[in-house]
Amino acid sequence: MIKSFSHLLTQIDITLEDAAGTKLWFPVNPTEINIKRDRSFETFPIINLGEVDLPQSEKIKEISFSSFFPAESDPSYCRYNDIPDPQLTMNQINTWMSERLPLRLMIPPTQVNVLVIISSHNSAFKANEPGDVYFDLTFRTWRDYRIRTLDEVGGGGGAAGEPRPDLKPVPKTYAVQPGDSLWAIAKLNLGNGARWREIYDLNTGVIGPDPDLIRPGQELVMPT
User: Which parts form a coiled-coil structure per UniProt (predicted)?
Assistant: First the structure.
């Protein structure tokens, strides 16, 4: 959608300012300002319906206008008398564009008061108007983003602040019952009594030097 202020914009003031406080007040208002808004769509094929568009997030807005910087002030069309040097102003705009840092675009009394970047800047000179510089400017609204480190996202395992999941298996344990033997425990838990040695090797510190002497209540770690 494009909204156009088609009437002559005589009562507005267009300013552009960077974070350091450098401010540009456009001396000559454009005849129209275009604001473009789009919404992105994702298309899915559905049986018997064909393709269906599902709306996604709104795209970044574009604001554009054209005007000129006069070499000399003329009260019939200039907003103020102490106008900036056209060529120096073009250089400042080019610098802002190359820096790719957000600028504050304000167009009172409209509701345009947004952070933008300069996405396109074209200038032209006319033979019968020496010193004047004509321009076309396009801005895109600034969308702040920040790349998080692995530490900030929990080591890369999830969203910020979430602990990384522990993927190691939790070992199974068995509490020795009266009358048990390692062979019987291996048969019950591992399906093979001959694997009793694996249980003993994992639990030597609990059982002691004699594998035949196990006591009720001992917690034995089972092989995985």
Answer: none
Reply yes or no on domain 2-141 having CATH 2.40.30.200.
yes
In angstroms, what CA-CA distances link 139 with 31, 102, 105?
17, 10, 9
What's the pTM?
0.54
Residue with tokens 């009172």: 108
CB 68 within 8 A of CB 132: yes
Domain residue ranges in the chain = 2-141, 173-221
Each residue's pLDDT, cut to its tens digit, for the chain (224 residues) gives 334 444 445 678 899 999 888 989 999 999 888 888 776 556 656 666 566 655 555 565 888 999 999 999 888 889 888 899 999 998 999 999 988 789 999 888 777 888 998 989 998 888 888 889 999 999 988 876 555 555 655 554 444 445 554 445 567 889 999 989 999 999 888 889 999 999 999 999 999 999 999 999 999 999 87
Q: Which residues of 90-103 are buried (b: 16+ CB within 10 A; e: fewer)?
A: bebbeebbeeeebb
Residues 161, 149 contacting (CB under 8 angstroms)? no
Q: Please name the fold of domain 173-221.
A: Membrane-bound Lytic Murein Transglycosylase D; Chain A (3.10.350)
